[in-house]
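Q: Got a minute? One more chain.
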Amino acid sequence: MKTNLRHLFSFHSSLFSAAAPSAAHRHLFSFHSSLFSAAASAAAHRPLFTFLFSLFTLAASAALAATPLLCNPYTFVGRITDARAAAFDNQRPAILSAYSTADAAGAPPTLLARSTTFYRDDTPHNYRLTIPMSSTPADGCALQNDLLEITATDDAGRLWTGVIDPATVGTPGTLCEVDIVLSEDADGDGIDDALLQDLINEWAASDYYTPDTPFDIHADPDGDDLSTLDEAHLGTDPFNPSDTLQIDSLDLTTTPPSLTASLPAGHVYTLETTPSLTSPWTPTDFTSTPSSSPRRTLSTPSTPARTPVTLYLLPTTNPSPAFLRLSTR
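A: Always. Here it is, folded:
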């Protein structure tokens, strides 16, 4: 045993003696010494490192807990129209805003989203409002069970306000369709007050006015089978029998067949066909140019008062219809 220990000691001594004169190896010893010192220092400060790491872990957990858990938003789309059923757009804008409703503590509503009406001829919608949702309270977000207060104002200052439960009109992550009519009906007769007064004034200035006959908004003074209120909603003149919604021409010799019409402003139009007048009318596809994509609706802008259009029938989806009509809403 003593011999073995002696050989071991002699081996280490030889290494030390051989390495000591070498300048190149001094750095090696110095490096190992530094490592040893750093390790010893780390061991001495291990409680401090452990404490700091614990604080960092707690801070990270608190930040994670404070981060709102965002959910799929509610996206509302639809049409904002006036009392004449004419849509607002970028030329005649209306502003739509969404607020959280006041809470039990009486905190005022918070603005969640705002948008302005737009115009596209290939969609019946003229607004899109996306409301951020969260499963935990967060600034600028609605909670999943919140009621929403929606307001809309036009350039004339008319205001529409409604409280909507999003769960009744759709689900998060999908489009929720809500149409809004900017109308004021103080007397509760079901007709917008300003529209009624405008129609009375137009009637009084027309050839159909008789002082002994009271104004009737449901009458048809110009005899075109549409009431005064219906024509107001169509965008046609209720006191002019030649101002109607009609197809101006139909050309079955072109490929594809086409029709032309001059359509009142701010409305959505659908082309419908039926094989007989006793059968249901069915919406059918058409295009706005011979080579464009099929569609089911056409929207007109708020100006001019009439928009001339040409619509092309699709033979594959319109197998020789006997009757054709334009409808609007």
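A: The two ends are 109 Å apart (CA to CA).
Q: Perfect, thanks.
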